Amino acid sequence: MARQNDPFSQNIDWLTLLLYLGCVTMGWLNVYAAVYSPEDHTSLFDLSTNAGKQLMWIGTTVILIICILVINHTFFDTFAFVFYGFMILMLILVLFIGSNINGSRSWFKFGSFTIQPAEFAKVATALALAKYLDVPGINLTKQKDLLYIAGIIVLPCILILASNETGSTLVFASFAIMLYREGLPGWIPAVGLSAAALFILALVFSKLYIFLGIVVLLLLVILLMPRYNRTLPNLLGIGLVGLMMMGYVAGVDFFVNNVLQKHQRNRIKVLVDPTIDPLGVGWNVTQAKIAIGSGRLQGKGFLEGTQTKFDFVPEQSTDFIFCTIGEEHGFIGSFIVVALFIALLARIVILAEKQRTKFARVYGYCVAGIIFFHVMVNIGMTIGLMPVIGIPLPFFSYGGSSLWSFSILLFIFLKLDSRRAGAMWR
User: Fold this and answer.
1) What is the pTM of this model?
2) Which tens digit of pLDDT belongs to each residue from 67-120?
3) Residue 343: CB partners within 8 Å, gap ≥ 6?
4) Which domain holds residue 91?
5) Element spanning 275, H or E
6) Does 221 fall in a domain?
7) Cβ contacts of 74 within 8 Å, gap of 6 or more
């Protein structure tokens, strides 16, 4: 009977747990490599370094995980909206009493440690979405339900954006993956992807070429339509869509030059032309690609990265931790890390599909979407395929807020999944 209250006797998915432990361990070792100095010979356990502090964060994370596994699974369902409301309050408070770090007022500072509420807001929003979508009768084809869901997602986005934390705001777009799985009409994500593609094209090519491309595309649509659908209203509708697309493309320059802040414009410019100002705004991306490329197939070896030792890559233990992996462990090491994340994401999706409750399934897809977005953007920005928006690599980047939030996010789902497996204590 005693073992029923033991969190380690529950039917936790051990494969997911092993993948998680692999990510955390490799992350800690690479944080150590990123801050290692051959002159100082600092230890892995030196609490004055990022590696030592990360170990302390790992220790506190274990305590959080045990708490999650001990709590009854109904707690997360029952108090989902309470968590959401609390995090909204924290996002408001941080605007007034938070510390400004790197131009972003999004941190609570306690001595030498900092906590970023935006990281935990993703967990709270995932729980709130799962709770709302679990209500019988909710349908993503209904306008009212879509508006409520949009409100749940947009509210924290507005508050996070107000703290000048653009990267964390963009992560909330990952919830579209879950919404599509739950029945979101396909045209909505299609419009979003088309808008993103047109935005990038407008930055790279002449507007005239894009306009001609839109005209050709619409003519092809009309020619491929069945003859009986070529009615005047349909043709006018297609023409209106074309005009809206052209207007959107024409407004991209105004948005970039007059709405975005200077550092945001610079990040977009570097994405479009990586050679621009290599000693200035392009420094991070240029040095990151040099570090990863210099690792070649097998890498230079653990603690042997020259780009790392001489601090060529800024923020290498946080946002650019993947550079350390690429330089010291090469293509093979980078492939192993990517494969590890793919396996973790695949396992989460498989478990989500097996859930007996909609709440658990929706939450599982939220977990997969958030982790996928972080991995895709973080690795993409270090190799020049994504703009540098400053989001961490899950379980690898240095930082307590990041490690805590991703661990809480994952283990709440594992707790919900253990109920499905039939080994949950009552």
Assistant:
1) 0.90
2) 999 998 899 999 999 999 999 999 999 999 988 877 778 888 877 778 899 999
3) 19
4) 14-38+47-204+261-421
5) none
6) no
7) none
